[in-house]
Design a protein that fits this description.
This protein is mostly helical. It contains six helices and no strands.
Length: 203
């Protein structure tokens, strides 16, 4: 490629004034192109920086999503564990309070654990001090449901009264069938009629 020099231009028959004019115009054009090139390079560098920031932002967003999901999972597990612990503590309080009611009624100690295992505690509520909100009602209901197992002073070895007539169901119902009875009163009656299925001894 032929370089644009004064000698080359003179060889083309241009005088000195024309040569200087061409050289000046060429220089300005080259300088302008250099400026445009430098500007384009700067814009490319800026675009690369922006692209890098965008990639880092996407990466951070993805990582944040992972952290958020992990946090939500841990939070859910903690809340489920907390609820289970609270439910177990509440059930333990109910059983303790109910056992006290049974003892107060005179239920034989060896039968209390068996009664606790088959008692439905869902409808009973205790306050923060571990006592029933309606102790008189609970005691009356417990006496009605488990009165057949209250020992009397005249009984040797704390014998219980004769089981109710519903004991005829003892040979026709299983423990699973009894626990499937939704009516609490009927379920308790079936349990009393089939005490051996629940580890409750009747002398």
């Amino acid at each position: 490629m032929q370089m644009l020099t004064r000698k080359f231009l003179a060889g083309l028959g241009l005088d000195q004034t024309q040569i200087e004019s061409v050289i000046q115009g060429h220089t300005e054009s080259v300088d302008g192109l250099k400026d445009d090139l430098d500007k384009a390079k700067a814009e490319l560098a800026e675009l690369a920086a922006v692209r890098k920031e965008l990639d880092e932002a996407k990466k951070a967003a993805s990582q944040n999503k992972v952290w958020q999901d992990e946090y939500e999972s841990l939070k859910k597990n903690f809340e489920e564990f907390r609820d289970r612990q609270a439910a177990q503590a509440t059930l333990a309080s109910k059983k303790t309070a109910y056992a006290a009611v049974l003892r107060d009624l005179g239920i034989q100690e060896r039968r209390i654990d068996s009664i606790l295992r088959v008692t439905d505690f869902d409808e009973l509520s205790v306050s923060e001090d571990g006592k029933f909100a309606n102790p008189d009602d609970v005691k009356a209901t417990a006496s009605k449901e488990w009165g057949d197992f209250i020992a009397t002073p005249s009984e040797v070895g704390a014998r219980v009264q004769t089981p109710p007539a519903t004991n005829a169901n003892a040979t026709t119902m299983t423990k699973k069938e009894i626990m499937a009875i939704k009516d609490a009163k009927k379920r308790q009656e079936a349990i009393k009629a089939n005490p051996s299925l629940f580890g409750i001894e009747v002398n």
